[in-house]
Amino acid sequence: MPAAAASFQTDAEPEARVILVDDDPMGLLLTARALRERGFEVLDFDRPGDALTAIAAGGVDCVIADVLMPGMDGFEFCRRVRSTRDGEGLPLLMLTSLDEDEATRRAYEAGASDYCIKSINWTLLVHRIRQLLHLGRLERETGRGRAAIGPVTPAAPVGAFDWQPAARRLRGSTDLFRLLDWRDPPASIHDRHLLALASPADRRALRRAMARMLDGGPAVRREIEVRTRGGRLRRVRVDVHQVVSTVGGALEVSGAVHDVTPRDVADATVYRLTHYDGLTGLPNRTWLLERLQRPRPTGSTGRLGLAVLDIDRFRQIGEALGQEATDRLLVELAQRLRRLTASGSSARDSAGWIDAVVNLRGDAFALLLDGLADADSALAIGRRAVEALHEPFRIAARELFLRASVGVHLGDDDESAAQRIGHAELARRAASAAGGNAALAFDPSMAGAGFDRLEMERDLHYALARREMSMHFQPQVDATDGRVIGFEALMRWVRGGQTQPAGTFIPLAEETGLVVPLGEWAIVESCEALAALRRRGHRDCTMSVNLSAQQLRTGQLPRVISAALQASGVPAGSFEVELTESGMMRDAEVAVAELTALRALGAGLAVDDFGTGYSSLAYLTRLPLTTLKIDRSFVQDIDLSDRSRAVARAIVALGANLQLRVVAEGVETDSQRRTLVELGCTLQQGWLYGRAVPLDEALAFADAHRIPAGVAMTEGDE
Hints:
Elements: E1 7-9, E2 17-21, H1 25-37, E3 41-45, H2 48-56, E4 62-66, H3 74-83, E5 92-96, H4 101-110, E6 114-117, H5 122-142, H6 146-149, E7 159-164, E8 169-172, H7 174-179, E9 189-190, H8 191-195, H9 200-214, E10 221-227, E11 233-245, E12 251-259, H10 266-275, H11 285-293, E13 303-311, H12 314-321, H13 323-338, E14 353-361, E15 364-372, H14 375-388, E16 393-395, E17 398-400, E18 404-410, H15 417-433, E19 438-441, H16 446-462, E20 469-478, E21 483-495, E22 498-500, H17 502-512, H18 515-535, E23 542-546, H19 550-553, H20 557-568, E24 575-580, H21 581-585, H22 588-600, E25 604-610, H23 617-622, E26 627-630, H24 632-635, H25 642-657, E27 661-664, H26 670-678, E28 683-685, H27 695-704
Parallel strand pairs: 2-3, 2-4, 4-5, 5-6, 18-19, 21-23, 23-24, 24-25, 25-26, 26-27, 27-28
Antiparallel strand pairs: 1-11, 7-8, 7-12, 8-9, 10-11, 11-12, 13-15, 13-18, 14-15, 16-17, 20-21, 20-28, 21-22
Helix pairs in contact: 2-3, 12-13, 18-20
């Protein structure tokens, strides 16, 4: 097989042209980059008027617009798009940080095709866009326009599958087997059982097309007729999404089967598309909202409740597995949750049961609870759901253990459907904040904390544009003579006149993906600060900047740093990047490749918090390091603890053997300073020397601690 065919991706809507409009520069940058990396052609605008001009020019497949924009908000923008000739039938997705019934209603009244909450779950966003494109195509094929079917929340294509050509084994989603009238399918089947449903001519043609594709030919998109196991004749289109070569060299294929049966059954197809998730086969959020708004049957006993379940650290799991295996994991997860429902278990619990499992988005699921005696009954079911995930999942020859956070809420009759979901979600967030792997019941006190977090996330999106971000600089000194040898650049955010703790907004920035553009901004600011130092004559000073490990995964870090160095005119050898060892070791192979490219520029690389993570020394020897930093947890009692001194001594020795600089951080007392010097660590930083301060104060500090060459400071000089 040609090397070029070992790994390639094709979308059901290749080269789709997307208009993206958002006045938030970070949101625009992140979303546009994510879509371009996934094969879309993106025209991005920060002003709605410019976007309307581009739409009027034609050639647009989909429009994505933010709701909160000055001048012309997303609702008005949507109405203007719909009023144009070419915009009437355009798929239009509205993005916002507002999760409110009123905002949702206004979006659909304005003509939005779909409305969803902003996040950096790019997989989910791409699925939503493809769903909109697919539904639009289906409407055109069946002669039905947007006005005929009303505003909907589309779901994924009819059925998804994964196929292993060598083993001839195939795994399919619930919707795939539902389409084929196949009840109780096994976890995997021999592909001949599915091929047997096609006519001999279609079967041969499909086999030839797949064989050509596996040999490096074009991707497959072919319509065939099948006779379902229920005897119905249906027409389907087979689309291959991805072919990858596994570590062992075997091929794995993933794709989708679309129901393109003629118009007489199009209504059922549209309903399935708009109310069910094509990957897992589960009902979606639209289905749940309609179900919660429906009156309960006469004679129902017990109360109705809801549980929202989210997988802890799912983003990291997805990054490690890749898209294909992640989708397979979600299918397995959905099947396991369905086994907890009343129809999937032997009997209903008298205190309540799970009536349905719903896929809200990606790895977020809802459990519709019924027959509940009280809130404790709902909580007990939530805990059973957590325990059900403790059994390992086996995906792509790996054994995975999942942890989940579950929030439960016993609904009141006067609550809207969205309020019920929102309260369960707040409880889920509280469970996650408490460490995860647990279930919590909603308490009204949770509402304030959740709202504050949403407000902070919204403000963080605008922090750079509002000039609320700044860099402060903490000196690093040579403890033998007091000379400033460099500075560490640290990010500060003043929000509403109050400085936010880095421990609060940095994790939020990492969770939302905003840490990437913030990191790029910090690199530019740090290089300019280094240039200012050099203009003051401090040409031997270095500048280090803390970055998130997420910066490595973009694949753009060397390019960003190279551009910043060139723009500021500072030498690469004076600039250093600091990353935590645990962050680098999370994806060590990627870290090695990216940081090797970074070192090729000449910039330095420091391992922050050294000794506190879970790194492998074998990997550390492969990383092109220049500096090790002794963590403050060892420094704080280094003058009192034999163990802390032993760790520091070992790090100093390791640095000497690997020819690396060693810097101790968190030095606060003269006793700590002297002990470190005795151990051979003379490069230090901490409050003993100075706190992180704005650039003008840092420049003045450097001027005041400029020691002439040849003049050393003795103990008596201090």
